[in-house]
Amino acid sequence: LFFCKGVFHTTTIIERSVFIDAAPEAIAMIANDPGRLPDWFAGVTKIEPDDNWPETGSGAIVTYKSAGISFKSTFTSLEFRSGEKLTIQLDGMLTGTNQWVYTPEGNGTSLTFRLEYDMPGGGVGQAVNKFVVERANEKNVEQSLSNLKKFVEG
């Protein structure tokens, strides 16, 4: 929470982790496949990636539905190391980043997802975010990690 040029701003951070009984590469095969994203990532209804997605510098247009609102977001891959880390810049209704970090643990992997975003609309936007959008995003992140775990573990 901070003030900038007399305007009230807050960055929302949502971070969740899940243990998946698989090697990072096995998880990445599903997580990095844009054709499968709508199957496991809650809220994603469509993805239109460029030919190099998710390589660093590539992009995608993602249609997303959260809290009853559908919107498109431009994703730009800022950093990609398959089975290790993926950082994505988000531009659209929400601006920010999301990051996937794979940490090997024993025979499996701890996968951490971190979403940082700013909600437009000043004080009204912040209130809507706090009471509607943030909760919906938290639920979608938790559901997505659970779905991915089920897909990978079979």
**What sort of overall outline do the alpha carbons produce when their principal axes are compared?**
globular
Largest sheet: 7 strands, antiparallel
Give the helices and strands as they follow along the chain. EEEHHEEEEEEH
Average pLDDT, rounded to a whole number, is 88
Q: Could you tell me how far the N terminus lies from the C terminus, measured between alpha carbons in angstroms? A: 41 Å
Structural class call reads: alpha+beta
- Unreliable residue runs: 1-7
The percent range for helix content is: 25-40%
Taking Cα atoms only, what radius of gyration do you get, to the nearest Å? 16 Å
Strand content: over 45%
Question: In words, what does this structure look like?
Answer:
Helix 1 (24-31) packs across helix 3 (122-153). The chain is α+β, with helices and mostly antiparallel strands. The strands form two sheets. Strands 3-9-8-7-6-5-4 form a seven-stranded antiparallel sheet. The chain contains three helices and nine strands; from the N terminus they run E-E-E-H-H-E-E-E-E-E-E-H. It is globular and about 45 Å long. Helix content is 29%, strand content 47%. Residues 1-7 have low confidence and may be disordered.
Write the layout of secondary structure elements.
Layout: E1 2-4, E2 7-9, E3 11-20, H1 24-31, H2 37-40, E4 44-49, E5 59-66, E6 69-81, E7 85-92, E8 95-105, E9 108-118, H3 122-153
Antiparallel strand pairs: 1-2, 3-9, 4-5, 5-6, 6-7, 7-8, 8-9
